[in-house]
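Give me structure tokens for this 226-residue protein.
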Amino acid sequence: MPNTFADVPKAVWHADETGLVTVQAQPEWWRRLGQHADWPEYAEMFAQAGEQARSDDVCGVLGRTTYRPCRHNTRLYGPCPHHCETPLSFHCATERKKGGWCRWDLRKGACAHHPDSYEEYMAAIRADEEEEMRRQAVREQELRKEAEKRRTGTLGVACPYCDAQPGGSCLMRNGEEQPKLHGARENLWLHTNTASTAACPYCEAAVGELCRTSSGKIANQAHTGR
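Here you go.
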């Protein structure tokens, strides 16, 4: 009697994440194995292989007509729409006279048996879309405020790139003003803010002093850890 599947003769087997064990073999092999006195031990080996391969992330419910386990991955895609215990947002969910609830997917259109459920579904979608638009507007307003705060702060320092003075716009090479401030100027403002709150353990710059490089020049940015 074999102790491992490697010892099973003339058969190819496979166990998937649902616990389904598939054995492919010639009819003669099945007849001979069925008559073998140790057949229960073979069957137990296949059963253990299915149990070990079974994943908790897979639905695994047996189909009523196919008798094959459902492969829906609940970890990646959420509850299985076909075998979940409670209705999902896109289910018709109308209670049936014989018990249970209608599992029609309203994303495909109105349910032929319960048309009212589609109107409720679409109303919920419109409400969700309006709420998302409101949240997006709030996020955009916060981003605008943050951008204005950064611009106002950056204008408060001189630009090390184009030598624009505090309060003045950055300049292009031809001397004309440009609407966008140079990145080096914004880095200097961030550096100044950091220096005003803590000393630097790397270059030993005191509170209020900007970090310096090994050559003594002012660093473009505050050192990490400050």
